[in-house]
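Tutorial handout. Part one gives the primary structure; part two gives the three-dimensional structure as tokens.
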Amino acid sequence: MRSARRRRFIALADRQRAGHPIHEMPQTRLPPPLASADLSRVQAVFTDVDGTVTSSNRLEARTLRSIEKLKQNDLRVVLVTGRPAGWGDCWLRTLPVDAVIAENGGVCLTRDRRGRFEKIYSESSSERLRNRKRLLREVQAALRQVPGARLSTDSPYTEVNIAIDYNEEAKLGPTALRALELFLKRRGVTIARSSVHLNCWIGAFDKLSMVRRFIRECWGLRLAKPDPRFVYAGDSLNDAPMFGAFSLAVGVANVAEVWSELDQRPSFITRGREGRGFEQLAAAIIARHRDPPLRAAR
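Part two.
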């Protein structure tokens, strides 16, 4: 039964890449469409980046405009990504966003009340140093075990985690990817697969733990469930903890490609893939937005 379901989802992913709409997903597995979500009280949008805001690995002008429109309508926007802290630094300084949670929750980049740049880490400096040294050893050992495996080209800009490229510039097959995952798990390394990288770290954190901390420490609020104030948008396996914690968890249509592997799934799904799906979500939130701006500690 499991292999049959997997074949159906693979077939669906192939049909989506060919331009067929999401409603052709098997009905027993289809989450409610975005149109059925009550978005009237949303005050902040948390979103993954790769495969959710980007389209074919690029941030398109029309998607950026959707983020700008959210901000113009007094909605907060936080990027939540596996990408390096170095990317987060650039995004916070150049994009219309309130914060960037980078490296799968290893570091949060935000601004204080005076607008000054600030970093919040999941671990102390001594923990980061110790774990970083061990992580580099374990990942290098894994790369030696799997022919063709290599670090992502943006790994030099990380501070906490390390990424192995399997679907961005490198193209590792499923057998090699599974071998990497198995080797690293056996060595005590936490792994989370995005749409492009296998993210690796040592430590008790993930996207969700840092999002909870950010909401608490920077906004003076708590993430509840259900919680109509916050939306999360994502597409991949490292979004699963967020899908489980947000009652307004939205998958862009390409989430169907990993649907059978998700242990926690979004409550709603867009018709559009990648950035188009995010644009549909942003437009729906703006159209239904009724509550006043988020009142936060910062």
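Part three, for discussion. Confidence is low (pLDDT under 50) at residues 16-28. The chain has two domains: 2-20+36-122+206-288, 125-201.
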